Amino acid sequence: MTQTEAKVETELVEKSENENGNTPAVLHTETEVEPTMEEKIVHQVEFYFGDANLPHDRFIKLESANHDGWFPADLLLKFNKLTNITSSLPEEERLKKILEALQGSVLIEVFEDNTKIRRNPEMPLPEGNAETKSVYLKGFNKTETKLQLIDHFKKYEGMDKVIMRYYKEKLLLPPERKPETEANKEDGEETKPKITTDKIVWVKKFKGSIFIVFKTEEQAKAALADITTYGGHPLMKLMQTDYVATKKKEYAARVELRNSRKRKSDGNSDESPSKKGKDGSADEEEQEEEPLKGVLVKLSEIPDDKGITREIIRECWYTATGDKDKYEVAFIDFQRGDKEGVLRLSNENAAKEALTLDSLKEGTLSLKDGASVKVATFSDEAEEKAYGIKMQKDRQNFKKRGGGGGGGRGRGRGRGRGRGRDRGGRGRGGRRY
Question: 333-345 pLDDT, tens per residue?
């Protein structure tokens, strides 16, 4: 291949959306040529049965084990990506097209009666785990595209795949007003247009971190040593094995913290004499858990005309901090329309650390549509502790009510519809903690 030809060659990666949440396939094509349907099919199926995906794909492995190592061909239509690729064809012709395309694959073997497929037994999976050949990078702009990332990292020897990491954001679409028609009129009188309920949709968004898979572990380590920045911004970098080990430790620590709190809470509800004080009440030490320090963020100057919700605040907080685990939000003390609120984090001293980040050090958290909110830590440790104890007691009262299933004595009309912070839940479910 000439240097000119090498320049126009690039890799297009498509995200797999099967029920197992598998990662994208790599399509090798030319920048100015749209891949044919056959090429897209081959590359997508080769990804499913490829080195990076197959070892972790329980669906394919289970079905293959149940059919003597062959994967039933008709199950290919259960993969959303293949269905999308062949969507221009009549349904009865899609499987036939997929199997015809796979006849040209070196990796995939099609059984003679076109009823099943498998990975070519002459091309077994390499020994070892794909994680040992992958690097984890974090710190990318959320607007980066797959092609931009591949174009940047393809200079590293042995670079095989770039896998973008995504999360799903819940969006609440406003209710629709159906236009008035003759059917809306009764006895000659006009009726108001009907309004449908809110609609929830989930939108996939880039997390700002990726995995890059290399052909060998040595190539992965060499690239990791050389990679430092992207677009002038420093990158956090780890071998994928180290990243996974770190996340397992963090998860275990969070589980242990939750369990220890639960044990203390269960102990407080024990009415045995050994756990009561001289006056017959539970010991104060066991009754109240010491609140974590440095976990509260005060929110102020919240615009009331932008439809700001807890979900929006939470999403924008994660966007600003860039680390969902370190700056995890435990809950947000805020109701729509309030001018102020408090955001509580899960990890001790996370609030103070977060407000030193470049995106927050000016004391402003950017929201949607140009809106923003002021953020700050509590200036006085005693004030923070008092507020923490208050929120802790609110949660205890919430649990005593059985999860807030009635709402208490709210200010609004009807049962449980009040918005008072201490006097009842929010709507039917009460305040969520």
Answer: 888 778 888 888 8
CA distance 153 to 295: 38
Distance, in Å, from the CA atom of 337 to the CA atom of 318, rounded to the nearest integer, reads: 22
Which tokens hold the place of 365? 């958290």
**Confidence (pLDDT) at 427:** 41
Name the 3-class secondary structure at 120: coil
- For 58, residues 6+ apart whose C-beta sits below 8 A from its C-beta are 20
Pull the structure tokens for residue 32. 């100015």
State the Cα–Cα distance between residues 390 and 396, nearest whole angstrom. Answer: 10
Reading the block at residue 76, the tokens are 């290919």
Specify the DSSP class assigned to residue 415.
T
Please state, in angstroms and rounded to a whole number, the distance separating the CA atoms of residues 407 and 414: 10
The b-or-e profile of 71-91 (16+ CB within 10 A means b, else e) is bebeebeebebbbebbeeeee
Give the pLDDT of residue 318.
Answer: 87
400-405-406-412 Cα dihedral, nearest 10 degrees: 110
Residue 157 CB partners (closer than 8 Å, separation 6+): 219, 222, 223
- CA-based torsion, 267, 270, 274, 279: positive or negative: positive
In degrees rounded to 5, what are phi and psi of residue 189? -95, 140
Report the distance separating Cα 416 and Cα 413, nearest Å: 8
pTM of model > 0.85: no
**Whole-number percent of the chain with pLDDT over 90:** 26
Return d(Cα 47, Cα 14) in angstroms, integer. 10
Residues 6+ apart with CB under 8 A from 95: 73, 74, 76, 77
For residues 387 and 365, give the distance between their C-alpha atoms in angstroms, rounded to a whole number. 22
Using the structure block, give the residue that is written with the tokens 């040595």. 218
